[in-house]
From TrEMBL, chains A, B:
<protein>
    <submittedName>
        <fullName>DNA-binding transcriptional regulator, AcrR family</fullName>
    </submittedName>
</protein>
<dbReference type="GO" id="GO:0003700">
    <property type="term" value="F:DNA-binding transcription factor activity"/>
</dbReference>
<dbReference type="InterPro" id="IPR050109">
    <property type="entry name" value="HTH-type_TetR-like_transc_reg"/>
</dbReference>
<feature type="region of interest" description="Disordered">
    <location>
        <begin position="199"/>
        <end position="220"/>
    </location>
</feature>
<dbReference type="Pfam" id="PF00440">
    <property type="entry name" value="TetR_N"/>
</dbReference>
<feature type="DNA-binding region" description="H-T-H motif">
    <location>
        <begin position="39"/>
        <end position="58"/>
    </location>
</feature>
<feature type="domain" description="HTH tetR-type">
    <location>
        <begin position="16"/>
        <end position="76"/>
    </location>
</feature>
<dbReference type="InterPro" id="IPR001647">
    <property type="entry name" value="HTH_TetR"/>
</dbReference>
<keyword id="KW-0238">DNA-binding</keyword>
<dbReference type="GO" id="GO:0000976">
    <property type="term" value="F:transcription cis-regulatory region binding"/>
</dbReference>
<dbReference type="InterPro" id="IPR009057">
    <property type="entry name" value="Homeodomain-like_sf"/>
</dbReference>
């Protein structure tokens, strides 16, 4: 068994490539044709993969599209993590991070996910596939956001502020769906960086900042 | 001409009722069948209106659905305005207002609008109808939010904070699409009320609050 591994490598490699091509073709397909036009056969053709090979990887179109959204979500979060080292130090870091986060849902990936989410609201099989995925991808985005902002959830109010940041990002993604909303978004990013700067604790500090205490108590 | 007015009233009244029934049936229809399943004929049947009468009011399904989204958007904002008098005074006012605003997009109206927005991203005729409507409804929601919060846009940072509030509300609407997100939303509402309380100027004051000045300058 151990001896057979080197010989199997190229085939595994080919299989991974096929899978990746199918996933990328799915997202393009959903974005152009919506959920109703996205079948395994259509995606296979677009990816230049035989229908049999496609069905070997993904039995149903629900399997295919959820895998596609998960894959692209992971790619996007990995890219985000890799950019951590490029972040400027000091005061301009927070605005750079907020800029990354609030632009997270303005691309083709979000557009495809939105098609699926809306279709799932009237399609039980798709909904059953997407709900656990939504939770998983959401948790992962939350973790990356905490990392980028350099804060910990143990500190009061941080969890809600980071959640609100990602919900705001999705709202901004929606506002960018039919027309280019980047100018308005830029001003909101600047404003929001200021809010987070004064409400989140200093990166790495164990104690919540003054503003967090103030804000957590303000509406009691 | 003046003498004919009383005689025409009942017919105008009937016409308005027919129109309203068509608009309400449209929203229900979009929510259940999506944009692809929503035709003037299907909506007319659901509303109990003849197809001819429906087409007298709305020539195309684009006309019908944009009128439906606009109508329901107006109804919702009117209801919001009417609730101003019920708002508690003093410190708990802000949390009550934020609760109203951040729950704005969690109902069937937003679900229907979302179906249309997503469909419009791959349908040029629908997009052309929706983009000006999106701008109009968005401006109106912004105006109502300013009114409820008792603040003026002339004050620095207010515009962006109110925009962010409505973008956040839409993001929360999205998060509520496939599963009940109300418990998580409640904590975000509480936190957001604290943020607005410390960043917006006092209702009715001409000068921006300290926190607004602080926050506007923080990320420079």
């Amino acid at each position: 068994m151990v001896l057979s591994t080197p010989a199997r490598e190229p085939q595994q490699e080919r299989s991974r490539t096929t899978r990746r091509r199918l996933l990328e073709a799915s997202v393009a397909c959903i974005g152009e044709l919506g959920w109703s036009g996205t079948t395994v056969a259509v995606v296979a053709q677009r990816a230049g993969v035989s229908r049999g090979a496609a069905q070997h990887h993904f039995r149903t179109r629900e399997d295919l599209v959820t895998a596609a959204v998960e894959y692209l979500g992971e790619v996007q979060l990995t890219q985000l993590r890799e950019r951590v080292d490029e972040l400027p130090p000091g005061e301009s870091r927070i605005e750079a991070v907020v800029d990354m986060l609030l632009n997270l849902y303005t691309g083709p990936m979000f557009r495809a996910a939105l098609h699926l989410w809306v279709a799932a609201s009237t399609d039980d099989a798709l909904r059953a596939a997407l709900v656990p995925l939504e939770a998983r991808v959401g948790r992962e985005a939350h973790r990356v956001a905490l990392e980028l902002l350099g804060v910990s959830e143990d500190q009061r109010g941080v969890r809600e502020m980071v959640q609100a940041t990602l919900d705001l990002a999705r709202g901004l993604g929606l506002a960018n769906l039919l027309s280019d909303d980047s100018r308005r978004r830029e001003r909101i990013i600047h404003q929001w960086a200021g809010v987070l700067d004064s409400t989140l604790p200093e990166p790495g500090s164990a104690e919540p900042g003054d503003a967090t205490r103030k804000i957590s108590g303000a509406a009691r």
